[in-house]
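Possible regression after last week's pipeline update?

I re-ran a chain I had predicted before the update to compare outputs. Posting the input and the new output here so someone can diff against the archived version. Not blocking, just want to make sure nothing changed silently.
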Amino acid sequence: MMSRSRRIPQRMCIGCRQRYNKRDLVRIVRTPEGAVVVDPTGKRSGRGAYLCLQEECLAKSLKAKILEKALMVPIAADTAEDLAKQIGELVKIKSKEGMKLPMK
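New output (post-update):
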């Protein structure tokens, strides 16, 4: 009897529009209070959008206001800088752990 393989959830990066495994992406969430933060666990309550861990995708999603549309909230410049810093830290952590980052 063969064992069933578990289905791996897929999500789309809002920057490059590529599909990746959910665990390979970072979730940006608008909390019920209206704050926009990085959600490393992927379990925080609120409206979320997924980005791959490439700076170009964050830059594109901010410049074209894709992230604002996905989260349905305007994003201030200082909030965008905080998001970039937090994603940069996640990239460092994941590369130290030996995890492969999604590549185009």
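Follow-up from reviewer: compared with the archived run. The mean pLDDT is 90. Marking as no regression found.
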